[in-house]
Design a protein that fits this description.
The complex is a heterodimer of chains A (about 250) and B (about 260). Chain A has about 250 residues and is an alpha+beta fold. Chain A has a single domain, classed as Glutamine Phosphoribosylpyrophosphate, subunit 1, domain 1, CATH 3.60.20.10. Helix content of chain A is about 40%, strand content about 25%. Chain A is built from 6 helices and 10 strands, in the order H-E-E-E-E-H-H-E-E-E-E-H-H-E-E-H. Chain A has helices at about 20-30, 80-105, 110-120, 170-180, 185-200, 230-250, and strands at about 35-40, 45-55, 65-70, 75-80, 135-140, 145-150, 155-160, 160-165, 210-215, 225. In chain A, the strands form 2 sheets. In chain A, strands 8-1-2-9-10 form a 5-stranded antiparallel β-sheet. In chain A, helix 2 (about 80-105) crosses helix 3 (about 110-120), helix 4 runs antiparallel to helix 5 and helix 5 (about 185-200) packs across helix 6 (about 230-250). The relative contact order of chain A is 0.19. Chain B is an alpha+beta fold. In chain B, about 30% of the residues lie in helices and about 30% in strands. In chain B, a hairpin with a 2-residue loop joins strand 6 and strand 7. Chain B is globular, with a radius of gyration of 20 Å. The chains are: A alpha+beta (about 250), B alpha+beta (about 260). Chain A: It comes from Macrostomum lignano. Chain A: One of its GO terms (cellular component) is nucleus.
């Protein structure tokens, strides 16, 4: 199914005769075999959600969140290799802190996205390193406008109204396209994002997963907040209920 | 991508670990530079007192340029987090520099969400180390800091000066305040039988009375101030600017005073 790059996939500094960088493509595969991450720009905020697949019940809950704070006002959701995602988060945090220190104001998301993209791209140019095996979604609510950027292992990045990466990205993207984003409030967006994660989750292959949710909106005053407690339970129940409804529909 | 390697976790002689930015002194690499000889734009006294359910701290908003009352709206009180506030007197450039470092640390802690944040005692300890180490290189940050907040459910009040002298007390004052007002604050505490006998209102009025004394008697004091209140059970609140009412009618009794 996948084209084998024998001989041209040993390091990322080598092109294949067809002009492909196989190491970058393999990095994308690392993202595609990991839990789905979803980002949705709502009317008054941005929601991030991740299907955090947990391989053992022995882990403490929420010990390995896949949603990160980058400074107070920017959130990052990651799909792919978690240690790579943490490294990207660390760089992003340094950039944001530096910017805040020298400019005296929080870093605009467009600027941060550009820096993260530069970073991830830099790791695709030298044989001494490997590309990051993760894709990241960056979110912020700036000057009343919700913003979402997605950066992939190749370093390419776009600004999105809604996006998904990871295992079920195609299904998730289809679900996002069905939403009327311009009318959706961030509070409802949290529930919809949870619903998308649950509906795209493969019960058979990955039994147990944690729902990582976060919100940056007018309500949170532009602060990136990890959704916990009541709001999380509400979203999670809404998603599970929608799933049951869907299942019971099938029974008819 | 050398920045990936630049973060240092361990303190070796060549690097300064976490205190990094605060510890950089220009002549370590460039011997032509000079050391701090004198403060330039300065802040006057900071006063603080514990009460039965927390701590209150006040500092006026004046930045003096020598004897010129140049900047009349400088905030000197820093809210670090819900349980910690700090204020400084002395050189305001040094204060603003250190405050930025502290704020960046505080943001770092917030975003890591591991539930560990600066407690007033840990901030006090960190400041002491930075101030003492700077003095040991004969390039001090020319400030006296007061750290106030809630530590393990109890009110906390700590003092650090540019020599690295640090201590904790039930009432504190810097600069002129330590000469003119510390006695008044101690009297208030003694009268109440300790800080557990002071209410928020009594503590606030004691501090206001002291600020008034300072405005009358300290040429570098001002009648506009910020107030920080850190109740043990609630988040820290920094309010201001408050205005001090003062009565200068006695000036007419002063010989040679003309209107």
């Amino acid at each position: 199914m996948s084209s084998i790059g024998t001989g041209y996939d040993l390091d990322v500094s080598e092109y294949s005769p067809e002009g492909k960088l196989f190491q970058v493509e393999y990095a994308h595969k690392a993202v595609e075999s990991s839990g789905t991450a979803v980002g949705i720009c709502c009317r008054d905020g941005v929601v991030l959600a991740v299907e955090n697949i947990v391989t053992s019940k022995l882990y403490e809950t929420n010990c390995n969140r896949r949603v990160f704070h980058i400074d107070r006002h920017i959130g990052m959701a990651a799909s792919g290799l978690l240690p790579d995602a943490r490294a990207v988060a660390r760089h992003a945090r340094e950039e944001a802190a530096d910017y805040r220190q020298s400019h005296g104001e929080p870093m605009p998301l467009s600027e941060l996205a550009s820096r993260v993209s530069n970073l991830m791209h830099a790791y695709t140019m030298y044989s001494a390193v490997r590309p990051f095996g993760c894709g990241v979604l960056l979110a912020a609510f700036e000057n009343g406008r919700p913003q979402l950027y997605g950066v992939e292992p190749s370093g390419v990045y776009y600004s999105y109204h809604g996006y998904a990466i990871g295992k079920a990205k195609q299904n998730a993207r289809t679900e996002i396209e069905k939403l009327k984003l311009a009318e959706l409030s961030a509070a409802n967006g949290v529930k919809e994002a949870a619903k998308i994660i649950y509906s795209c989750h493969d019960e058979v292959k990955d039994k147990y997963f944690e729902l990582d949710l976060s919100l940056t909106s007018a309500e949170t005053a532009g602060r990136h907040v990890i959704v916990t407690g009541e709001q999380w339970t509400e979203a999670s129940n809404y998603a599970k209920a929608a799933l049951e409804e869907h299942d019971s529909d099938d029974d008819v | 991508f050398s920045s990936a390697m630049s973060a240092s976790f361990y303190t070796k002689p060549a690097n300064n670990g976490n205190a990094g930015v605060a510890m950089e002194t220009s002549w370590d690499s460039n011997p032509g530079r000079q050391r701090t000889l004198q403060p330039i734009t300065t802040g006057a006294s900071v006063l603080a007192i514990k009460y039965n359910a927390g701590v209150i701290m006040v500092a006026d908003t004046l930045g003096s340029y020598g004897s010129l009352a140049k900047f009349r709206s400088i905030p000197r009180v820093l809210r670090v987090n819900d349980a910690t506030v700090a204020a400084a007197s002395g050189d305001l450039a040094d204060m603003q520099f250190l405050n930025t470092v502290v704020e960046n640390h505080a943001i770092d802690e917030e975003i890591h969400e591991h539930g560990i944040a600066y407690s007033p005692a840990s901030l006090h300890s960190w400041l002491t180390r930075v101030m003492y180490n700077r003095r040991s290189r004969i390039n001090p940050l020319w400030n006296t800091y007061i750290v106030a907040g809630t530590e393990a459910g109890q009110p906390f009040l700590g003092y650090v000066n540019m020599l690295g002298v640090a201590f904790k007390e039930d009432c504190l004052a810097t600069g002129f305040g330590s000469h003119l007002c510390l006695g008044l604050l101690r009297e208030a505490l003694d009268a109440a039988g300790g800080y557990a006998g002071l209410t928020e209102e009594t503590a606030t009025s004691a501090l206001e009375a002291c600020l008034r004394v300072l405005y009358y008697r300290d040429c570098r004091a001002y009648n506009q101030y910020q107030l920080a209140n850190v109740p043990v059970a609630k988040p820290a609140q920094v309010s201001g600017p408050h205005f001090l009412q003062s009565d200068w009618s006695v000036a007419k009794l002063v010989k040679h005073y003309t209107e």
